[in-house]
């Protein structure tokens, strides 16, 4: 649809559905993720969807290139949905990793482990990579996006303050970018901010428009 | 205060106030801004503060270098607070501009003006600069931070969809980074995301610690 400028009035322009919602109208969309941040981001696309959580062991082959892991796990997360996949279904799954000096930081085991991770991130650049998989009955597409994140040097007191107040034990790399630590520690990023939150939403929008 | 690792227990670590809250304990802090985004960001610092709005005409000298405008306006915004400034007062003011090809984009006058601004931002890099002023009875410090923002090429339909649904007529450059347009249009940023929202919160944290 082309919008003619002369047809548009400041006060009376009707509320259209978005091009993306029109493009995906044939699908019942499912976001297969238990992350509240991903749900929040997907909501921002203004297309109807539901959330469904199906567990999978997040294992990848030893020796796999770390850069390939997020897409691999995003695809793996589609497996438990396959037995009853609906003909009009469209499933979006994703996985996010934190990578520093070539090594993947997972979720911390406890306070000490989280403390060590944040000490390691302190004063350095790390990379956040999110892999995404879009699946329908007839096709599947995957992609990933990466963002460089630069942390200031953190004091032990700052790390302790964050861990005791926010307990980020469910988060890869032991931090949430939208929490206090994201406010005080991140000097700059290069790439998508939303990718660090867990979903490269601009790229996902483009990929869904082409799907 | 140095935190001894051996003193910290996963379960029983007491909730300390932050180093910043301790440092600023002598002050009654005021955020002099009507922006709900700035209030949200400042809240994330976990220091007590109140919001006060005092109007000022946001005018700057003709011929002023655009890069200097945000700090100039942040200082100007302190003026209406001066007549009854308290001895223990600490005031934070800020101003954010959108700059493209050396020209400042202000708040749009109407739909057509906003449409033109977003067409101008489409497919290009622009710069968001926020100037901040920290004021007490005895001293004043100012700084600014800039973030490069890269927009994808927007269709007329996308611009119309955004303007009719979100009506960003109170926003410099006619967009809010945390709204739908920020999700679908921003390919990447270089710098602080929160600076684009209106407050370079990491830099502000450091400056307040040194104040």
Write the layout of secondary structure elements.
The structure is a homodimer.
Chain A: H1 19-23, E1 28-31, H2 36-43, E2 50-51, H3 69-76, E3 89-100, E4 103-105, H4 111-121, E5 125-136, E6 140-151, H5 156-166, H6 180-185, E7 186-191, H7 193-197, H8 201-210
Parallel strand pairs in A: 1-2, 1-3
Antiparallel strand pairs in A: 3-4, 3-5, 5-6, 6-7
Helix pairs in contact in A: 4-5
Describe the protein's architecture and organization:
The structure is a homodimer of 211-residue chains. Chain A is 30% helix and 24% strand. Chain A has 211 residues and is of the alpha/beta class. Chain A has a single domain, classed as Maf protein, CATH 3.90.950. In chain A, strands 1, 2, 3, 4, 5, 6 and 7 form a 7-stranded mixed beta sheet that branches. In chain A, helix 4 (111-121) crosses helix 5 (156-166). Chain A is globular, with a radius of gyration of 19 Å. Chain A starts with 18 loop residues before the first helix and ends with a helix. Residues 1-12 of chain A have low confidence and may be disordered. At the A-B interface, helix 4, helix 5, helix 6, strand 7 and helix 8 of A face helix 4, helix 5, helix 6, strand 7 and helix 8 of B. Strand 7 of chain A pairs antiparallel with strand 7 (186-191) of chain B.
User: Which chains have the largest interface?
Assistant: A-B, 51 and 51 residues
CATH architectural arrangement of chain A? Alpha-Beta Complex
Largest sheet report of chain A: 7 strands, mixed
The total of beta strands of chain A comes to 7
The CATH class assignment of chain A is: Alpha Beta
Specify the overall morphology of chain A.
Answer: globular
Radius of gyration of chain A: 19 Å
Give average pLDDT of chain A, whole number. Answer: 92
Strand content of chain A: 15-25%
CATH topology type of chain A: Maf protein
Number of domains of chain A: 1
């Amino acid at each position: 649809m082309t919008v003619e400028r002369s047809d548009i009035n400041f006060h009376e322009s009707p509320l259209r559905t978005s091009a993306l919602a029109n493009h995906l109208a044939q699908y019942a969309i499912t976001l297969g993720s238990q992350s509240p941040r991903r749900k929040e981001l997907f909501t921002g696309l203004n297309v109807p969807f539901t959330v469904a959580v199906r567990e999978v062991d997040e294992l990848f082959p030893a020796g796999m290139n770390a850069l390939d892991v997020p897409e691999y796990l995003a695809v793996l997360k589609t497996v438990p949905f396959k037995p009853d996949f609906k003909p009009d279904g469209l499933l979006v799954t994703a996985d996010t990793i934190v990578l520093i000096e070539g090594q993947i930081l997972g979720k911390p085991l406890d306070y000490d482990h989280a403390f060590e991770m944040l000490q390691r991130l302190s004063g350095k650049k790390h990379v956040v990579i999110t892999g995404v998989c879009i699946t329908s009955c007839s096709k599947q597409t995957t992609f990933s996006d990466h963002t460089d994140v630069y942390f200031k040097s953190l004091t032990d007191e700052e790390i302790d303050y964050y861990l005791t107040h926010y307990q980020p034990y469910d988060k890869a790399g032991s931090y949430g970018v939208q929490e206090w630590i994201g406010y005080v520690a991140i000097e700059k990023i290069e790439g998508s901010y939303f990718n660090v939150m867990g979903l490269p939403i601009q790229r996902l929008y483009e990929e869904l428009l082409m799907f």
